[in-house]
Design goal:
single chain; 707 residues; alpha/beta; GMP Synthetase, Chain A, domain 3; seven-stranded mixed beta sheet; 21 helices; 31% helix; binds adenosine-5'-monophosphate-propyl ester
């Protein structure tokens, strides 16, 4: 698929005159790289930001539009610019001071994402190509599905949804392990115009219920369970609990469709999950297999507006209530397709392996929408990187001829500590590229990935993005942009990042500040479901006329961007965003706790971890059982990923004279970075600080074991 032509034939040098330590792609990689020259990158980049409508029109033409590409839409931006209404695909307002935030792209053009991802690929003669290689937790679990088979299953499940009463615009919750059924359910929704909301299968029943209710989901797709390493996860039990919670809050679903995901226990050799029999309530539950069996495999796609919602995906918010980020059909589809091609240097026939769970934006973007739009073969892995041993990912890469591997810094740091032998056992013969996402990567882990896993010949593509941006925005286009370990480098086509000062001034040259984006791009989120005001205040109010990411960044002397992390009350644990408010609210459910502050501390594997300072109510004593209960409450309410790494029982929290908790100071104490605590002039009781430092030093990290 040629979205943007590859390099033209002008044989200029790769303008690699950047200062500092840079890495460039190997000659072998360059032979097949889409773009190899910086001057070419700069030229296309300039075109893409100077005339985004023309740039994206070229991309849109590669897709199917049921009524053609509508360019004569009622375009306020074009009208305001006085340059006529035709030819414009974008229509947006980023300036809250001028009116509501409103982003539209290709509005009026009719399309269907599922059709473009599956039928269009089959029409190109690729029906027999493997769309997915699914690999389970245990070594012998492997299935494949071709594009034609996928279409058949998707049509069947789309008909099932219709029979269950699902209509365009209705919301469907999907709480499944990484599986072919998960992809099928997502695509079936998009085929009939239903809006999927995938909930990561590591979330608790409470989190699932919150999301089902918030998005007003009418149907839930779940599974009996899944096995991760040696642990059985009883997803149906969790789903049942969550449906009870929904009922208590007067939210009733029409049905719950259950995938039998656990392998059938072998009669000779009893499996560890053979005794698990989830409950089955005939008034609401249905088995996936039985419904699919009975359904027709013909289902015409519903032609939807480019701006109709495609999916909702929840991400943490700093107030504690997760935000249902809404993405729309055309913008998300086009951006993910284009980014997939360039970030992973996708070439026809490549096999792509991304370790992200499908319940996160990376899974949606890379494993489903981006991969299928390019006709790629993707590996889906429903296991953990250390089972049965720390060589599992490398084994998958070798055994499946993986060309591009996409993972998170946390996984790299985890596997690195097991040593090089696990990697060296495998040849990595077909691997040509490695990409990263989710959090800043430390230099040591980057170099290990580059030298040991990539054998010094694979570019490392550090991609910066967010649930809200839909697709990577900043990354080194492999083969073209020289890499620096730890930097996401330069913006992708059509993206204009800026660094802002506290008072909203754009800072030029080498500088540090708030990372924001200046122009709209097609896959930017359109709203927070049911709360547009929150969307505006979270991303657009602090800096009018910019989308504010919530991250801080540094621009170096070469213009490279280094994302330094969150500037708000959010934590990034193993690449997953969590809000401190959400964790604090779970801890406060315990009646023995008077006050709590959750802050981030650095962690060698997870990047960041959660550290909680708790103040007990009068006459309460902190003991091990209380600590276990508090951790368990967080797991039950949010999920295991939010479990605090350490808890400190303290007499008081540092507060300003107006009563605001001084988290900045707590974060420094949690990080054992107490030499310079900053401005303490507003603190109401300075003696608290010494006590906190002492508790932190005496108790140490991890299991606090306080009495
Ligand atoms: O802080 C940034 C960090 O992850 C946040 C987005 O989290 P989420 O919406 O859950 O999506 C994660 C996967 C896309 C960002 O605000 N982040 C993401 N990628 C990077 C990163 N930080 C540094 N470098 C990255 N490559």
């Amino acid at each position: 698929m040629d979205f943007v032509a590859d390099n033209d034939n002008n044989n200029g040098d790769n303008n690699n005159n950047l200062l500092g330590e840079t890495f460039t792609a190997s000659d072998k990689f360059l032979e097949r790289a889409h773009i190899t020259r910086m001057d070419y990158y700069h030229r296309i980049y300039q075109l893409s930001v100077q005339n985004p409508d023309a740039f994206w029109l070229n991309i849109a033409e590669q897709f199917y539009w049921h009524n053609g590409i509508q360019r004569n839409n009622n375009n306020t931006r074009a009208a305001a610019a006085g340059d006529g209404a035709d030819g414009k695909l974008f229509d947006y307002n980023f300036d809250v001071t001028k009116g509501p935030i409103n982003i539209r792209f290709m509005s009026g053009s009719k399309t269907n994402a599922c059709y473009n991802l599956v039928d269009r690929i089959i029409d190109k003669g690729l029906g027999d190509r493997i769309a997915y290689i699914w690999i389970g937790n245990d070594l012998n679990e492997r299935k494949t599905i071709t594009y034609s088979e996928l279409k058949r299953n998707v049509c069947k499940f789309a008909n099932v949804l219709k029979i269950q009463g699902i209509r365009p615009g209705y919301r469907v919750a999907i709480y499944l392990p990484v599986s072919l059924e998960l992809v099928t359910a997502m695509l079936a929704c998009s085929r009939i115009g239903a809006v999927h909301t995938v909930v990561f299968a590591g979330f608790s029943s409470q989190s699932l219920a919150d999301r089902i209710i918030d998005a007003n989901c009418r149907l839930l797709v779940t599974a009996d369970g899944t096995v991760r390493g040696n642990k059985l996860i009883k997803l149906k039990d969790i789903s049942d609990e969550s449906l009870v919670l929904c009922k208590h809050r007067n939210h009733k679903l029409v049905s719950c469709i259950v995938v039998k995901h656990l392998p059938v226990p072998n009669s000779c050799q009893q499996n560890r999950w053979s005794k698990y029999e989830p409950k089955f309530d005939e008034t609401i539950d249905h088995y996936w297999d039985e419904l699919i069996e009975a359904a027709s495999d013909e289902c015409q796609p519903v032609w939807l507006d480019a701006e109709d919602p495609l999916f909702i995906l929840y991400t943490s918010g700093s107030t504690g209530k997760p935000k249902g980020v809404v993405h729309t059909i055309a913008g998300y589809m086009l951006t993910t397709a284009l980014v997939f091609k360039y970030a992973f240097n996708y070439r026809d026939g490549d096999t792509f392996f991304c370790t992200a769970d499908l319940g996160w934006i990376t899974g949606h973007t890379a494993n489903v929408y981006g991969s299928l739009a390019n006709g790629a073969t993707a590996v889906l892995f429903d296991g953990i990187p250390t089972h049965p041993n720390a060589g599992r990912l490398w084994q998958i890469i070798d055994e499946n001829g993986v060309n591009s591997f996409y993972t998170a810094p946390t996984a790299v740091r985890t596997l690195m500590k097991f040593g090089d032998d696990y990697v060296n056992r495998w040849t990595m013969a077909k691997l040509k590229l490695i990409a990263l996402v989710g959090e800043p990567i430390n230099r040591e882990a980057w170099l290990w990935l580059y030298n040991v896993v990539g054998r010094g010949r694979c570019p490392i593509v550090d991609t910066y993005f967010q649930t809200e941006t839909g697709a990577p925005m900043i990354f080194p286009i492999p083969g073209c942009i020289p890499m620096k370990p730890g930097s996401a480098t330069l913006p992708f086509f059509g993206i204009v990042p800026v660094i802002l000062s506290e008072d909203g001034q754009e800072l030029s040259g080498p500088n540090s500040g708030y990372l924001a984006f200046k122009n709209a791009w097609p896959s930017i989120a359109r709203t927070i479901d049911g709360n547009h005001e929150r969307f505006e205040s979270t991303y657009f109010r602090k800096f009018p006329n910019y989308y504010f990411t919530g991250d801080g960044a540094v621009r170096d002397q070469n213009g490279y961007l280094w994302v330094t992390g969150r500037t708000d009350d959010m934590l990034n644990v193993s690449g997953h965003l969590l809000s401190t408010a959400e964790v604090e609210s779970a801890i406060l459910d315990n009646k023995r706790i008077a006050e709590v502050a959750a802050v981030s501390m650095s962690h060698p594997i997870k990047g960041e971890a959660i550290c909680c300072f708790v103040v007990l109510k009068a006459q309460q004593i902190y003991d091990l059982q209380l600590e276990i209960d508090l951790k368990q409450r967080v797991r039950d309410k949010i999920g295991a990923i939010a479990t605090p790494e350490c808890l400190f029982s303290v007499r008081a929290l540092p507060k300003t004279r107006s009563g605001k908790i001084m988290r900045r100071i707590l974060a420094k104490i949690a990080r054992n970075d107490v030499r310079e605590l900053g401005d303490l002039s507003t603190i109401s009781d300075e003696s608290v600080i010494d006590e906190l430092i002492t508790v932190r030093r005496v108790v140490g990290d991890g299991d606090s074991g306080q009495q």
